[in-house]
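It is worth pausing here to work through a concrete case rather than discussing structure prediction in the abstract. The textbook approach is simple: state the sequence, then state the predicted structure, then interpret. We follow exactly that order.
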Amino acid sequence: MLAKPKTKRYSTVIFFFLTIALFGWYAIRPTIQTILYLQREIVDKKIVNTKMDDKINALIEAQAILENIQPQIAVIASTIPKNPQAVDIARQLKNLAQTTQASLSGIQIASVPILITTSSAALSSYVVKHVAIPITISIDGPYTGLASFMGGLLAMQRIVTIDSISFIPSKSGIPQSGVNEIRLQLKVTAYYQSY
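Step two, the predicted structure:
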């Protein structure tokens, strides 16, 4: 069969095309696969790029908001201090009573540590607990003064929750300038952070 010249030419041409097709397939196939992979990767990168642009814009907006509220962060941080600061809260209550024309007759603060020391291991855990400090306040004065005291108590920078309120006639029994005095007994709770 190979002796026939026509068969020899056709078989040479067929084997030539088969060889070209085979080598072409193995040479071109990886290039085509690479082109398709790169096109898919370009599309994925464009999606990631738009998501990153969105995140960058959100971070810029968050930074602007943070800069706007920066002066208020110190105020927010002082609402629940890192130490009990029992003396400070007693001083604030005493000053509030003086400014509202009321007479502070007693403050009882539960036993709390004066200063809390935190270890670096505790700070790294970021588990913050809010510890309650029960406070009992007895204050005498006219109704308007006590109402002003309550308003000032609610407006204090440090967070204080009112647990109970009781009004009773003052023990002095002698009205000053025609105004009956009332004794206000409050049970409040202040808080501090503990790690």
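Step three, interpretation. The chain has two domains: 1-77, 86-194. The beta strands are 103-109, 129-141, 160-169, 182-194.
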